[in-house]
Specification:
The protein is an alpha/beta fold and about 450 residues long. It folds into two domains: about 20-275, Spore Coat Polysaccharide Biosynthesis Protein SpsA, Chain A; about 280-440, 3-Layer(aba) Sandwich (Rossmann fold). It has helices at about 10-15, 75-85, 105-110, 125-140, 160-175, 215-225, 230-235, 235-245, 265-280, 290-300, 340-350, 375-395, 410-430, and strands at about 50-55, 70, 75, 90-100, 120, 150, 175-180, 190, 195-200, 205-215, 250-255, 280-285, 305-310, 325-330, 360-365, 395-405, 440. A seven-stranded mixed beta sheet has the order 5-4-1-6-10-7-11, with helices on both faces. Strands 13-12-14-15-16-17 form a six-stranded parallel beta sheet, sandwiched between helices. Helix 1 (about 10-15) packs antiparallel against helix 4 (about 125-140) and helix 6 packs across helix 8. The longest helix is centred in the last third of the chain and has 21 residues, at about 410-430. The chain is elongated, with a radius of gyration of 26 Å. The termini are far apart. The structure holds cytidine-5'-triphosphate (CTP) and ligand A1H0Z. Keywords: Cytoplasm, Nucleotidyltransferase, Transferase. Belongs to the IspD/TarI cytidylyltransferase family. IspD subfamily. Its main location: cytoplasm. Pathway: Protein modification; protein glycosylation.
Length: about 450
């Protein structure tokens, strides 16, 4: 059967149980991807698209919510995986395969986080059936049929563009390629009575991971020829390519970050990695104040485990800090009201910077002895609380730190060290409970 003659419904009736996609699918015009290391021109002659199987129930987590829909910092895990692919400019289309009853939730997620180049199709009762539906969906429109298909479990969010490039290039050259990792435990075979039969020599084996890549024809033909038993019990696409197309996949060792979220503990690990990736850098805005500049200098020397950039404002070239994954520490003198901080919040909102993950903004209020008037203290906490609750709606987490400028060098040094520790913890933990609080350093 010539690939070009096969229609989606022909394949559907024979090999994959799901109905035709309930949603016609959305292929919005995709903006050029964000920064990546391989220009899209490299792939102009062989378009690359992606299938993200996300139709499972995540039983092994023991949770009601399938793990791909568990939220981290207000966003479902699958949105992080989609983001990892949509920012790669040489990837044309992303097909997400979800259980029928999750199609609407998936569409809402795509709308909420403005994901692009994404189409949603219904999954099947097994992973192979889901992947098959995704592959068929990619081939449905001849003009959009890719030359290379990357298949990647939706619950492996930490995938890097460089490794995707290696897999795509190997698949283009050899027909199939897959990620592998060294085995952590030794593999053993058991007798039917549950005793050891024999153990495998661990050094000779590897764990098969994702992403995997295939030329479209190879993975299409593999699914066209495989058996019901493959669909029901199989777990390895590379095996199908070898068994039914004689295509021997190139195996490429990937980084440890390719691991799959499977158990509940993996969700905690994933959240910690996501938080760590968002907490690496902060931009200190001094407003041109001499005291603020010296505080910034002290912060740079302090134990802050965050990369600091120090700028007087976010104007001109400094506006670039609004676009990256920077957090902000705005230092202002005792007389400057919250309006300066508000300007930073407005700039962040205008850039929609917090759409995909919360941005931390810390207002450090410098005060001197005669400034600590009762009225000053009472007025500002209320003001920052109001401002913070408005900012929170836009996923911006605003915290306050009151720093008393002591003339005593030792006391000042201690205060600066406390500001560094508090700021570092706020950026790392992003605690909702402390949003809008004016903490005393
Ligand atoms: N019928 C299925 C089963 C699994 N998957 C997807 O395949 C990937 C890897 O499978 P696995 O980790 O086993 O996910 P689950 O099957 O959901 O997990 P469990 O076995 O614990 O239920 C996941 O992204 C999962 O959503 C799928 O698309 N369709
Ligand atoms: O078997 P599960 O459905 O838990 O996970 C799928 C994995 O087996 C699969 O992603 C890799 O082994 C590569 O095939």
């Amino acid at each position: 059967m010539n690939l070009m003659e096969v229609s989606h419904s022909d394949m559907q009736s024979d090999y994959c149980e799901a109905d035709r996609p309930a949603h016609p699918g959305i292929f919005p015009t995709c903006e050029s991807g964000k920064s990546d290391h391989h220009p899209p021109e490299l792939f102009v002659d062989f378009p690359v698209s992606v299938v993200l199987p996300a139709g499972g129930t995540g039983e092994r987590t023991g949770l009601q919510t399938p793990k791909q829909f568990c939220s981290f910092l207000g966003r479902p895990l699958i949105s992080y995986t989609i983001q990892a692919f949509e920012r790669v400019s040489w990837i044309q289309h992303i097909v997400v395969v979800v259980a029928k009853e999750k199609m609407d939730l998936m569409m809402d997620t795509i709308q909420s986080f403005r994901h692009r180049k994404v189409r949603v199709v219904p999954g099947g009762s097994t992973r192979h059936r889901s992947i098959c539906n995704g592959v068929l969906a990619l081939g449905e429109r001849e003009e959009e049929r890719p030359k290379v298909v990357i298949i990647h479990d939706a619950v492996r969010p930490f995938v890097e563009e460089d490794f995707l490039y290696k897999i795509a290039m190997a698949a283009k050259e050899l027909g199939a390629a897959g990620a592998i990792r060294p085995l952590v435990s030794t593999v053993i075979a058991t007798t039917s009575e549950g005793y050891l039969d024999h153990s495998l020599e661990r050094a000779k084996y590897r764990a098969s991971e994702m992403p995997q890549g295939f030329t479209y024809d190879v993975i299409y033909q593999a699914y066209k020829r495989c058996t019901e038993s493959d669909f029901e019990f199989g777990t390895e696409c590379l095996h199908l390519a070898l068994q039914y197309c004689g295509t021997n996949a190139k195996l490429i060792e990937g980084p440890p970050t390719l691991w799959k979220v499977t158990y509940k503990r993996d969700l905690a690990a994933a959240e910690s990695i996501i938080k760590e990736s968002l907490s690496r850098s902060a931009c200190v805005i001094t407003g041109g104040l001499a005291q603020a500049a010296s505080l910034a200098e002290e912060l740079q020397k302090a134990s802050l485990d965050v990369e600091l950039a120090v700028v007087p404002d976010l104007k001109g070239d400094n506006a670039r800090y609004l676009f990256k994954e920077w957090n902000f520490i705005h230092v202002s003198g005792s007389r400057s009201p919250l309006t300066e901080v508000e300007a930073v919040l407005v700039a962040l909102q205008e850039e929609n910077r917090a759409l995909l993950h919360p941005v931390v903004v810390i207002w450090v209020r410098l005060s001197s002895t005669d400034e600590l008037s009762i009225s000053g203290r009472v007025a500002e906490p209320a003001a920052i609380t109001d401002l913070a609750s408005r900012a929170k709606i836009r996923n911006i987490l605003l915290y306050g730190i009151q720093l008393h400028q002591s003339k005593d060098a030792g006391r000042w040094e201690g205060s600066v060290s406390r500001v560094a520790d508090i700021a570092s913890a706020l950026i790392r933990e992003r605690s909702p409970a402390l949003v809008g609080q004016l903490l005393q350093a």
